[in-house]
Amino acid sequence: MDFGVGYFATHDAMGPDALAVMVEEHGQESLFFAEHTHIPAERRTPYGGGGELPRKYWHTYDLFVTLTAAALATSRLRVGSGVCLVIERDPITTAKEVASVDALSGGRLEFGVGAGWNREEMENHGTDPRRRMTVLKERVEAMKAIWTQDEATYHGEFVDFDRIWSWPKPAQRPHPPVLVGGLGPTVLDRVLAFGDAWFPNHRPEVLERSRELWARADRPVAVSVMGVPADPKVLEEYEKAGMSRVVHWLPSNGRGPVERELAAWEDAIADLQGT
């Protein structure tokens, strides 16, 4: 089981390049960045974490600028989106951004995708929240066509294009791993339809649903868990269950608080490993 960290890269906290160097030096396998293009000031959708929505949600750098900064500052660290809100993005542009980061990093990108939770945010991008799962599916499928075909074609309800040229192609073949986020009732259907892995948030039901996923799958499907606490008992449970990766959130703050939280995560890993 691999160990990684997640981060909301904000303009008033430790920069993504410096953070990536520190995380790589500390031996973490991966670093995932959150994405929100904006947060509407008139909010209707409740925050799933309870209470007020943390300000970091509307202070993040652009996801692919952040990924590029982290990738170019490191040589081994896998960098990823945790998650990219594909329903708010043009798939042709996003396909090029993904391929560019993967090529520039030498094939170190993990492409986490999701349909989002903030309805007014996605509405501002022209996406009907009631159709967002279909939008997600079509845009991911269209990007896969662009990554793998010299003259890509895709015809769907929300994405439609004939014979386009788009380079670079990703360094990873056939494309970077697509990690499908979410915990909704139909998420496993999406993982099996167009994902290489499931990327749920840490919740009690993840273990049972992972077993269901593997029972249904006709191919290897990895499970990476986001938001895992620095608790060796939780880590042991996930390791025994066969998870491929666990990811712990770091605070959007200066170097000192980030280092202290990373140290707590490392202590939990050391306790698990008996070192």
UniProtKB/TrEMBL annotation:
Enzyme Commission number(s) from the entry: 1.-.-.-
First-level EC class: oxidoreductase
GO molecular function, one term: oxidoreductase activity
Pfam families in UniProt: Bac_luciferase
Keyword Flavoprotein attached: yes
Keywords of the record: Flavoprotein, FMN, Monooxygenase, Oxidoreductase
Domain Luciferase-like: 18-225
Cross-referenced NCBIfam families: F420_Rv2161c (TIGR03619)
Protein name as annotated: LLM class F420-dependent oxidoreductase
Organism: Angustibacter luteus
